[in-house]
Write a structure and sequence with these properties.
single chain, 354 residues, alpha+beta, C8orf32 fold, Serine Threonine Protein Phosphatase 5, Tetratricopeptide repeat, 2 domains, 7-stranded antiparallel sheet, two-stranded parallel sheet, 12 helices, signal, Transglutaminase-like domain-containing protein
């Protein structure tokens, strides 16, 4: 059994400090973004929405706890359960300082990466975004795995969340096509933790983060130890310090879950041959995504695509006109959004003909 151990000098202090924290009710760690730590009502609500959507009964927290017991990837020693292990690690981190605390934080992030990949072995773009499908079929996708990693790390006493990705480590751009967990280390730098990669601490070249009450397309500036030292906005404006940024809001995460439900609805936008019922399902979830967070530019754009597929040309054009300014305001316009606006502004070839 692989184990991510706490140094002996900290173990006694960790066990003593954990005390009553080794219970089903976690003590909240202050976060730079939303708090949805494992065991919290917020984490439970995210999972319950997924269970209700899929029609699954049970508790996702209980499933994760059982997965920890069977995965053979322990966090520390002398802890009989996932909650106990996370709470003991939180106590150990609280007792540590300086370079030793950063080392423990990185060790914990590595453990979360290993645990998620071991306990949820399959990757599925079609179904893996649903936490319920993690349980039903052992499948994960970038959003689900990032939320799980961040929730575990938050319970372990760390600051963590999730951000969108628009350029991968090779610099290949997408329209916010990926999600990754982000950790704010006690050193004040950020660290990405991506279970889609064989090693956790990847160097994605384009992220979407919160800053100044809005969302910004940024390019991370990495150090040799994989940490992010600062962020360069994609629009060329003033560089942002790590402290100027934060992960996606809870409403954005909720919106992104619904975005994927709309994108992957059976018979809908991206699942093969579209049907009227499937497109209506896509439209429903995309509209709900925008009601949860109106700054989700991807949901706004794809809703336009769905309306266009439904033959609702006027509504599609109006929706594209709403989506394009969101990208502009956030600092980067992907080619798909530019193409959609060009279609809106193209001359009507039928004008003037009887």
């Amino acid at each position: 059994m692989k184990s991510f151990l706490v140094p002996a000098s900290l173990l006694a202090a960790a066990i003593l400090a954990a005390g009553t924290a080794l219970s089903a009710t976690p003590v909240a760690t202050p976060q730079i973004g939303p708090n949805f730590q494992y065991g919290s009502p917020t984490f439970r609500a995210l999972a319950q929405t997924s269970y209700q959507t899929v029609g699954l009964q049970g508790s996702f927290e209980d499933w994760l706890a059982a997965a920890y017991t069977s995965a053979g990837v322990s966090l520390g020693s002398n802890t009989s359960s996932l909650a106990a292990a996370l709470d003991a690690r939180a106590a150990a981190l609280k007792a540590a300082s300086g370079a030793e605390r950063v080392r423990l934080e990185r060790d914990t992030a590595q453990w979360a990466h290993t645990f998620v990949k071991k306990s949820i072995p399959k990757f599925s773009l079609e179904r893996g975004f649903e936490l319920a499908n993690v349980v039903k079929s052992g499948e994960r996708q970038c959003l689900a795995q990032s939320v799980i990693i961040a929730a575990l790390l938050q319970r372990a006493g760390m600051q963590a969340g999730a951000v969108m990705v628009w350029a991968n480590p090779q610099g290949q751009e997408s329209n916010l096509g990926h999600v990754v967990a982000v950790i704010r280390l006690s050193s004040g730098t950020d660290l990405l933790d991506d279970a889609s990669d064989p090693t956790p601490f990847v160097h994605h070249q384009g992220l979407l983060v919160q800053s100044g009450g809005t969302y910004r397309f940024v390019r991370p500036v990495y150090a040799a130890d994989d940490t992010i030292q600062s962020y360069a906005p994609a629009d060329g404006s003033r560089s942002l310090s790590v402290q100027d940024t934060s992960p996606l809001a809870l409403s954005y995460l909720q919106s992104q879950f619904d975005y994927y439900r709309g994108e992957r609805a059976p018979g809908g936008f991206m699942t093969g041959k579209a049907t009227p019922a499937g497109l209506k399902s896509s439209e429903f979830y995309l509209r709900r995504a925008l009601s949860e967070n109106g700054q989700n530019a991807l949901a706004a754009l794809v809703l336009g695509h769905v309306l266009r597929k439904e033959g609702l040309t006027a509504q599609a054009k109006a929706q594209y006109k709403k989506a394009y300014p969101l990208y502009q305001a956030q600092g980067h316009v992907p080619s798909g959004a530019a193409t959609a606006l060009a279609w809106v502004n193209a001359p009507d070839k039928s004008a003037g003909h009887s």
